[in-house]
Amino acid sequence: MLPFYLSGSVESITNAFFETMSGFTTTGAAIMDNIDAQSHGILFWRSLTQWIGGLGIVCFAIAVLPIFSEGNMQLFSAESVGVTHDKIHPKISIITKWIWAVYVILTASETILLCYGGMNLFDAICHSFSTTATGGYSTKQASVAYWNSSFIEYVIAIFMILSGINFSLYFLCLKGKGEKILRDEELRWFLYSVGILTIIITLALIFQNHYDTETAFRKALFQVATAHTSCGFGTDDYTLWPPFTWLLLIFAMLAGGCTGSTSGGIKNMRLLMMAKGIRNNFKKILHPNAVLPIRVNRQAIAPGIVMTVAIFIGFYLFFVLLGWTLLLFFGVGFSEAFGTVVSSIGNVGPGLGNFEPANSWNGLPDTAKWTLSFLILIGRLEMFCVLLLFYPGFWRNR
């Protein structure tokens, strides 16, 4: 946070801390009201914090620093965002280096395309950093809408979706096992969700907001992609859309991307498992003696993992309610409080009401910023990893 504070870009420790926490957790919620006036150094630092935080500082350390030897899998599991981890290589350091290689390739590819679309090199690099990390920090106060370019919007929307996919699938594809991508149930669930939400919102924009078909599809795809992958860029003020579309975007924020990606949210794997568990419960009513394991990608999921996932989702929604209540107590508006809490714990960035994509969060009380900073942290580190520090038994034998 020192570059923000010492340069005078932000005026308080609270704001500098919030901006940094939002960056390294790839949340993208900004407190800066004058982004266009910031120096290139500060703008690059903002984007770099997101790029490093995208796959996690722990994974970065494992890949780069050989000092980490024992306990690598525990570190990797604590920082990774999956429910289960396919061991695609016996050495965790090799896995991390391959995943970082994919990360760099996606970033470089997007940078080239954005330059081709009319961005200068600096803006293209900063936006590629934020897109691949699904962060959302832009070099412009108006975010991606500043360029008013269909090409740039489509490029960023596509790369947001690509960055919301499990990175281990890219690794398997590089190893010649691309057929696993087609069979991955979580990926299909994620793409179906993005597609269905985009179609519904496109129709709403055509018939209720009178957008032309291409504009409606482009705006809907971009906003759904940015919410579903917890990226946080904006090209349109969705608070002017039909109110039911806000609920669809809130669902996308809660769902997040795939496990093993840079996205936030509950993750589609967990939702997929819960959906299959609900279906099995109905089947159990009809066939009481049937043995109905939950299977994902043809593998049975242990009951203990299913229970852990259910508890995680319960805790997740509990902290949404708790954070919402606290922000209301601090004087934040009803819809603004709900939007910022869901956005924070899901590491998304934009909220509702006065905190839509083009507006900063600087108007929030300092107490609300510290509360949201905590929600941002537990959302990025999968909740239990942080809450475990507050459990007395964790320290008893240490």
Characterize the structure shown.
This protein is an all-alpha fold. The longest helix is centred in the last third of the chain and has 27 residues, at 303-329. The protein contains 19 helices and 2 strands. The radius of gyration is 21 Å and the shape is globular. It has helices at 2-6, 13-24, 40-55, 57-64, 72-79, 92-116, 121-132, 150-163, 167-174, 179-183, 185-207, 213-228, 243-255, 268-286, 303-329, 334-345, 366-380, 384-387, 392-396, and strands spanning 295-296, 299-300. The model is unreliable at 66-85 (pLDDT under 50). α3 packs across α4 and α6 (92-116) crosses α9 (167-174). Helix content is 62%, strand content 1%. β1 and β2 form a beta hairpin. It has a two-stranded antiparallel ribbon with strand order 1-2.
Low-confidence stretches: 66-85
The major beta sheet can be summarized as:
2 strands, antiparallel
Task: Tell me the overall shape.
Answer: globular
Instruction: Tell me the number of strands.
Output: 2
- Helix-strand pattern, N to C? HHHHHHHHHHHHHHEEHHHHH
Query: What structural category arises from helix and sheet content?
Result: mainly alpha
Radius of gyration: 21 Å
Strand order of the largest sheet: 1-2
Mean of residue pLDDT?
86
How would you name the oligomeric state of the polypeptide chains in this document? single chain
* Count of helix runs: 19
Span of the ends, CA to CA: 31 Å
Helix content: 55-70%
